[in-house]
Design brief:
Blueprint (H helix, E strand, L loop, with lengths): L2 H12 L20 E3 L2 H5 L11 E4 L3 E2 L8 E2 L2 E2 L20 E10 L2 E3 L4 E3 L2 E4 L2 E8 L2 E3 L4 E4 L2 E5 L2 E13 L2 E4 L2 E5 L14 E17 L2 E5 L2 E19 L2 E5 L2 E3 L2 E8 L6 E6 L2 E10 L2 E2 L2 E4 L9 E6 L2 E10 L2 E2 L3 E2 L2 E4 L2 E10 L2 E2 L3 E2 L2 E4 L2 E9 L2 E2 L3 E2 L2 E4 L2 E4 L16 E3 H4 L8 E3 L1 H4 L12 E7 L6 E2 L2 E2 L6 E9 L1 E2 L8 E2 L29 E7 L2 E8 L3 E9 L4 E10 L2 E8 L6 E9 L2 E10 L1
Parallel strand pairs: 1-2, 2-6, 3-6, 6-10, 7-11, 8-12, 9-13, 10-14, 11-14, 12-15, 13-16, 14-17, 15-17, 16-18, 17-19, 18-20, 19-21, 19-22, 19-23, 20-24, 21-24, 22-25, 22-26, 23-27, 24-28, 25-29, 27-31, 28-32, 29-33, 30-34, 31-35, 32-36, 33-37, 34-38, 35-39, 36-40, 37-41, 41-42
Antiparallel strand pairs: 4-5, 43-46, 44-45, 47-48, 49-50, 50-53, 51-52, 51-54, 54-55
Length: 608
């Protein structure tokens, strides 16, 4: 150990408790005996002396942080609480690697007003965890800053579980979130280890304001699993990528989440506002499952007459680029200029399954009850809402792009419907119009009986793993021969609705020579597939259960096929291949596996 590290260790061991204004916190910071936060002075002590950012903390009482409103003042301006991580601890760290467990206590009246240009929140940078904590009357105002949030400004692999903000007020420029400004997993989606749900059981109630990448929970998010995120907020959208839950969502999986309140399209900053949705503003290469939004997305009545415009506005997703939307719906009033949809504003190269929209939709061009402008596969969906527009107005879709694509394959836009009477629209770019009575009759929905999910149950006497990572026994789920219907209806009384017993299931099992994992897809598959860049080559692994022709392709983020390899006729079994891709530039791609002429698997790859 060198001299510098020796000094650091001694400082951490010998630091006197006087750094905590209210005296020494009980505990030693270990996982077994964490430091105990009893009041606001203890909270401010984190990062000082012995209280390292790598230590463990718990709240033993509710904390009154009202004093923060009169702290760090210069003249009449008070900056309030100094975010955790703004100042280095004694071992020169600014990243919080430790844990804060609120034990369901509340921090009240915490106030932060910053002139900084980046990373403003209760915690500036998190790689550890914060959980079981509530905030009431939390105010974070940083009108010149990016990466602004109520709780965590930046999170790299950090876990945010059971965090709830009431009466929140968060304002920034970009990457603004009620809970977290920017968050990414510390591993790629193809290598996610079990239990890595970074955001679970969180909620935000209050006001959020930002320009680019702004959301009720997160501003910008990469490779993150969300489970049970809830928002009831007033959100001001000033530019682009604004969502009720996530502003910009890339390769995320968002499940069991919902949003309510209002998103106001404001033109104070930009002449155009785009990519705004009730759950996600931009969803790219990700998935939304079993989610819903009742958010109203409304044009600012004081500025819309000034010939400002908004586009890609949707009740659930504003702009949808590859990925999946399954078992979800939107019920809010949606307003915009072009590419305006009750569920999705612009859907490009993705799959929308068993979802619906029932909220009023108003726009000018490319306006649809379900999708404003569509370039995706839509299966077993419907719209039952008022739809108003001027050019390209449809009961299901306002405008539909028919483009041959390896990514999409055949069989697009199947068995989808709209209520002609309610919408007052008698045409659509695709879909079939029905009368209200027919919309409440199950036999009208052709093929919907076959929309079913496989039932999974706890495995018995089997070990589970995913990517060579052992799955905890309690999470080990195995496929059964049972199925559950996705759609339900009260015959003659209601439109179809999603079966409330559906649950996303992650499982992996060793009952054959290979492992597999399913994300609650409507049509499960039996192929094992993996691909990753290795320098100038792609290392490809796949397994097929029966003899078939095999092709592999790489698709860029604009949906263009940039590399195709015909791997020929293969017998059933496992295969490993390497492909030369030296001509491809750095960036994110989607690997697509075709078996027997059909797209059966896909995965995201990053070339560095």
């Amino acid at each position: 150990m060198n001299l510098k590290n020796v000094v650091r260790v001694l400082l951490a061991m010998l630091a006197v408790p006087a750094f905590a204004a209210n005296g020494s916190m009980k505990g030693d910071g270990s996982a077994e005996n964490p430091f105990q936060i009893e009041d606001y002075e203890d909270l401010k002590a984190i990062g000082k002396g012995a209280y390292l950012y790598s230590s463990n903390y718990i709240l033993t009482k509710d904390v009154d942080a009202s004093a923060s409103k009169n702290e760090n003042c210069s003249g009449d301006i008070c900056r309030g609480f100094i975010p955790i991580g703004k100042v280095k601890d004694v071992v020169d760290s600014t990243i919080f690697y430790g844990t804060i467990d609120g034990q369901n206590h509340t921090i009240n009246n915490l106030y932060i007003k910053s002139a900084d240009h980046g990373s403003v929140a209760f915690i500036r940078s998190l790689s550890g965890s914060i959980r079981n904590l509530k905030f009431d009357y939390l105010s974070v105002i940083a009108n010149s800053a990016f990466y602004v949030a109520g709780v965590v400004a930046n999170s790299h692999g950090g876990e945010i579980h059971n965090i709830h903000v009431f009466n929140g007020n968060v304002q920034g420029v970009g990457n603004v979130g009620g809970i977290v400004g920017y968050i990414e997993s510390d591993i790629l989606p193809t290598d996610i280890s079990w239990g890595k749900i970074l955001i679970k059981n969180v909620s935000f109630h209050g006001h959020v304001e930002g320009a680019k990448a702004t959301g009720g929970i997160a501003g910008e998010s990469y490779f993150v699993f969300y489970d049970s995120a809830y928002v009831d907020a007033d959100i001001v959208a000033k530019s682009q990528k604004v969502g009720g839950v996530v502003g910009e969502s890339v390769d995320d999986f968002i499940m069991n989440s919902h949003s309510g309140g209002t998103i106001t399209l404001s033109y104070d900053v930009a002449k155009e506002v785009n990519q705004v949705g009730g759950i996600a503003g931009l969803l790219s290469s990700g998935a939304i499952e079993l989610c819903y939004s009742t958010m109203n997305i409304l044009d600012d009545s004081t500025t819309k007459e000034k010939k400002k415009s908004s586009y890609e506005i949707g009740g659930l997703v504003g702009s949808f680029k590859t990925g999946n939307v399954n078992g979800s719906y939107a019920a809010g009033t949606i307003e915009g200029t072009s590419e305006v949809g009750g569920l999705i504003g612009y859907s490009d190269l993705g799959y929308v399954n068993a979802s619906y929209a029932i909220g009023e939709v108003k726009g000018t061009k490319n306006v649809g009850g379900l999708v404003g402008r569509n370039h995706s596969v839509i299966y077993a969906c419907y719209a039952a809402n008022v739809v108003e527009g001027v050019e390209n107005v449809g009961g299901v879709a306002g405008y539909n792009e028919e483009v041959d694509s390896l990514w999409l394959g055949p069989g697009r836009n199947i068995s989808s419907y709209w209520d002609v009477e309610v919408s007052k629209v008698d045409s659509s770019a695709w879909g079939e119009g029905l009368m209200t009575k027919e919309m409440k009759t199950w036999s009208s929905f052709v093929g919907w009986d076959s929309v079913r999910n496989v039932v999974f149950e706890p495995c018995v006497n089997k070990k589970c793993e995913w990517r060579n990572v052992l799955v905890p026994e309690e999470d080990c789920m195995c496929q059964t021969d049972k199925f559950i219907k996705v759609w339900m209806i009260d015959e003659g009384l209601s439109y179809p609705y999603i079966n409330r017993d559906l649950k996303p299931v992650y499982y992996a099992e060793i009952n054959e020579e290979y492992t597999t994992k399913i994300k609650n897809k409507l049509n499960t598959k039996s192929h094992s597939f993996g691909a990753k860049f290795d320098g100038s080559r792609v290392a490809l692994r796949f397994e097929i259960p029966a003899a078939a022709s095999v092709k592999f392709s790489l698709v860029d983020m604009q949906g263009r096929v940039v590399k195709t390899a015909d791997l020929g006729q293969r017998a059933a079994g496992s295969y490993f291949e390497t492909l030369d891709v030296a001509e491809l530039g750095r960036g994110r791609y989607v690997g697509v596996l075709q078996v027997g002429g059909k797209v059966v698997e896909k995965t995201t790859l990053n070339k560095h």
